[in-house]
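Task: encode each sequence below as C-alpha coordinates.

Item 1
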Amino acid sequence: MLRAHGEIDAYTLGRWRRLFSAARTEAGRSGHRVIDVDDITFMSCRAIIELAEDAQRYRRSAAAIHLIRRIR
Protein backbone atom coordinates (compact mmCIF):
# COMPACT_ATOMS: atom_id res chain seq x y z
CA MET A 1 0.00 0.00 0.00
CA LEU A 2 1.23 3.45 -0.90
CA ARG A 3 0.35 6.10 1.67
CA ALA A 4 0.73 9.63 0.41
CA HIS A 5 0.36 12.80 2.44
CA GLY A 6 0.61 16.52 1.94
CA GLU A 7 0.53 18.19 -1.45
CA ILE A 8 1.28 16.64 -4.81
CA ASP A 9 2.18 19.58 -7.02
CA ALA A 10 4.89 20.63 -9.48
CA TYR A 11 7.45 20.71 -6.67
CA THR A 12 6.73 17.17 -5.43
CA LEU A 13 5.72 15.52 -8.74
CA GLY A 14 9.14 13.90 -9.21
CA ARG A 15 8.90 12.22 -5.83
CA TRP A 16 5.31 11.16 -6.59
CA ARG A 17 6.52 9.51 -9.83
CA ARG A 18 9.28 7.63 -7.97
CA LEU A 19 6.78 6.41 -5.36
CA PHE A 20 4.40 5.33 -8.13
CA SER A 21 7.20 3.43 -9.83
CA ALA A 22 8.09 1.59 -6.62
CA ALA A 23 4.41 0.83 -6.00
CA ARG A 24 4.06 -0.43 -9.58
CA THR A 25 6.90 -2.89 -8.99
CA GLU A 26 5.28 -4.09 -5.77
CA ALA A 27 1.86 -4.35 -7.40
CA GLY A 28 3.31 -6.49 -10.16
CA ARG A 29 3.33 -9.38 -7.72
CA SER A 30 -0.37 -9.19 -6.82
CA GLY A 31 -1.89 -7.35 -9.77
CA HIS A 32 -3.32 -4.68 -7.47
CA ARG A 33 -2.02 -1.39 -6.17
CA VAL A 34 -3.70 0.29 -3.21
CA ILE A 35 -3.11 4.01 -2.67
CA ASP A 36 -4.26 5.64 0.56
CA VAL A 37 -5.10 9.24 -0.35
CA ASP A 38 -6.59 10.16 3.02
CA ASP A 39 -3.82 12.57 3.98
CA ILE A 40 -3.38 14.26 0.59
CA THR A 41 -4.38 17.91 0.98
CA PHE A 42 -3.87 18.94 -2.67
CA MET A 43 -3.32 17.06 -5.93
CA SER A 44 -2.37 18.96 -9.08
CA CYS A 45 -3.93 18.29 -12.47
CA ARG A 46 -0.65 16.76 -13.64
CA ALA A 47 -0.62 14.32 -10.72
CA ILE A 48 -4.20 13.31 -11.50
CA ILE A 49 -3.26 12.78 -15.15
CA GLU A 50 -0.30 10.61 -14.08
CA LEU A 51 -2.65 8.54 -11.93
CA ALA A 52 -5.17 8.16 -14.78
CA GLU A 53 -2.46 7.15 -17.28
CA ASP A 54 -1.12 4.62 -14.81
CA ALA A 55 -4.62 3.22 -14.28
CA GLN A 56 -4.96 2.72 -18.05
CA ARG A 57 -1.66 0.82 -18.18
CA TYR A 58 -2.83 -1.39 -15.32
CA ARG A 59 -6.18 -2.05 -16.96
CA ARG A 60 -4.48 -3.19 -20.18
CA SER A 61 -2.51 -5.73 -18.15
CA ALA A 62 -5.61 -6.94 -16.23
CA ALA A 63 -4.44 -5.30 -13.00
CA ALA A 64 -6.07 -2.58 -10.90
CA ILE A 65 -5.39 0.55 -8.88
CA HIS A 66 -7.52 1.12 -5.79
CA LEU A 67 -7.77 4.52 -4.09
CA ILE A 68 -8.91 4.49 -0.49
CA ARG A 69 -9.98 7.28 1.82
CA ARG A 70 -11.74 7.29 5.17
CA ILE A 71 -15.25 8.68 5.30
CA ARG A 72 -15.45 11.44 7.88
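Item 2
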Amino acid sequence: MNTQEISALANVTIAISTSIGVGAAIAYYLKEVIRESGLFIILLEIEYFLLIIIIPILIKRNLN
Protein backbone atom coordinates (compact mmCIF):
# COMPACT_ATOMS: atom_id res chain seq x y z
CA MET A 1 0.00 0.00 0.00
CA ASN A 2 1.52 3.30 -1.02
CA THR A 3 1.11 6.67 0.67
CA GLN A 4 -1.65 7.81 -1.70
CA GLU A 5 -3.77 4.73 -0.98
CA ILE A 6 -3.28 5.10 2.77
CA SER A 7 -4.27 8.77 2.55
CA ALA A 8 -7.38 7.92 0.53
CA LEU A 9 -8.36 5.23 3.02
CA ALA A 10 -7.87 7.66 5.91
CA ASN A 11 -10.03 10.29 4.19
CA VAL A 12 -12.79 7.76 3.57
CA THR A 13 -12.64 6.58 7.19
CA ILE A 14 -12.95 10.17 8.37
CA ALA A 15 -15.88 10.79 6.01
CA ILE A 16 -17.72 7.68 7.24
CA SER A 17 -17.18 8.43 10.91
CA THR A 18 -18.13 12.09 10.44
CA SER A 19 -21.39 11.28 8.64
CA ILE A 20 -22.34 8.68 11.24
CA GLY A 21 -21.35 11.00 14.07
CA VAL A 22 -23.38 13.92 12.69
CA GLY A 23 -26.41 11.65 12.20
CA ALA A 24 -26.06 10.28 15.72
CA ALA A 25 -25.69 13.75 17.24
CA ILE A 26 -28.81 15.01 15.48
CA ALA A 27 -30.73 11.89 16.50
CA TYR A 28 -29.59 12.23 20.11
CA TYR A 29 -30.56 15.88 20.52
CA LEU A 30 -33.84 15.62 18.62
CA LYS A 31 -34.86 12.09 19.56
CA GLU A 32 -38.33 12.98 20.85
CA VAL A 33 -39.15 15.06 17.78
CA ILE A 34 -37.68 12.37 15.55
CA ARG A 35 -39.74 9.59 17.12
CA GLU A 36 -42.99 11.51 16.79
CA SER A 37 -42.52 12.86 13.27
CA GLY A 38 -40.79 10.02 11.44
CA LEU A 39 -37.72 12.18 10.81
CA PHE A 40 -35.52 9.30 11.98
CA ILE A 41 -36.32 7.40 8.78
CA ILE A 42 -35.23 10.43 6.74
CA LEU A 43 -31.95 10.58 8.67
CA LEU A 44 -31.33 6.89 7.99
CA GLU A 45 -31.96 7.47 4.30
CA ILE A 46 -29.40 10.30 4.33
CA GLU A 47 -26.86 8.04 6.05
CA TYR A 48 -27.36 5.28 3.47
CA PHE A 49 -27.09 7.83 0.67
CA LEU A 50 -23.75 8.99 2.07
CA LEU A 51 -22.44 5.46 2.52
CA ILE A 52 -23.57 4.11 -0.84
CA ILE A 53 -23.10 7.08 -3.20
CA ILE A 54 -20.87 9.79 -1.75
CA ILE A 55 -18.12 7.64 -0.23
CA PRO A 56 -17.30 5.63 -3.39
CA ILE A 57 -17.02 8.97 -5.22
CA LEU A 58 -14.58 10.17 -2.53
CA ILE A 59 -12.55 6.98 -2.90
CA LYS A 60 -12.30 7.39 -6.69
CA ARG A 61 -11.44 11.07 -6.41
CA ASN A 62 -8.71 10.44 -3.82
CA LEU A 63 -7.13 7.60 -5.79
CA ASN A 64 -6.86 9.65 -9.00
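Check on item 2: The chain has one domain: 3-58. Residues 12 and 58 are 7 Å apart (CA to CA).
End of task.
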